[in-house]
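Support request, please re-run this one:
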Amino acid sequence: MSQSPAVDEPLTRAQAWTRYWSSGVQHSCPGSFAANYTGRIGDFWKSVFEALPSDARVLDACCGNAPMSQMLLDSDYGARVARVDAVDAAEVAPQWLDAASESVRARFVLHAGADVAALPLDDATFDLCMSQYGIEYVGEAAFRECGRVLRPGGRLAAVLHHVDALPVRIAHEECAHIDFLLEDDGLLARAQTLIEPLASAATAEGRDALRSDAAANAARGAFNEALRAIKERVAGARYPDALIEQREYLMQLLAAVPDIGAQAGQQHLDDMRDALRAARLRQQELPPAALDEAGVRALVDAFGGRIDRLDPLHFENGEIAGWALVATRA
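Re-run finished. Output below.
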């Protein structure tokens, strides 16, 4: 895990993603999508894996915590795989490897901190390049590199962000929610004014003093106003998860301040701001990476092959999840 930058120092893209993957999450989309590897998306990947040859070499591009590699190696088709090379620009460390069998660990090679636009891999090496919500962020250079390392007849299979997909709409809204939380007079700023008063409430003497502390009472009133504003925003939001989660975490933090003290409380609040800024950076990348059909075809042109399948995939609720793409290297 990379060292966290100072509060006033902007996060880089790689740092934001490293921090995200270090939490152990398995997918990159905002919101909670257990269906990212099941349902119709799972059926898509099953059809891809069914066509693998024996002793296949597989590239997992923009792998994150490599759930695709795990899914393949643990599947009925995993025995066909000689080796999976998983590549990501972030310093990822998949936790599932700890419980993996010796056979799986022996056939999995992680290239953390590697650029998918300049793969550290030989030409014409792989039978399959796979990616889910990943290589479209990098663009033509990643598709060109996948084409370079695939053998003639090798396939590129990917689930790509779609311009009309549910994750794109959620990303737009959650960016706005994060901006609202981080406003100069927003919920976190109002909470900060309560840290010192709440720390003094650790003693009976401190609690007595707070009752007549006009500044502390004003801070509490301002915080309650911010809570009411959050409640109204939640009521009007289509995707309020970020607001609800941050509000609950903040209330737990403030309740703990009398026990943990002002310094620790301030550090937790700073960490919360940092995490929100990192989430904002990640999610603001998603909409520009989302593709219409012409955009997908342009990337396949860079790849250098023919399209065998290109159609929208849907979540079980009918919402668009992304593009299903399979292309064969010339």
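DSSP finds 13 helices and seven strands in the chain. The CA atoms of residues 199 and 260 lie 8 Å apart.
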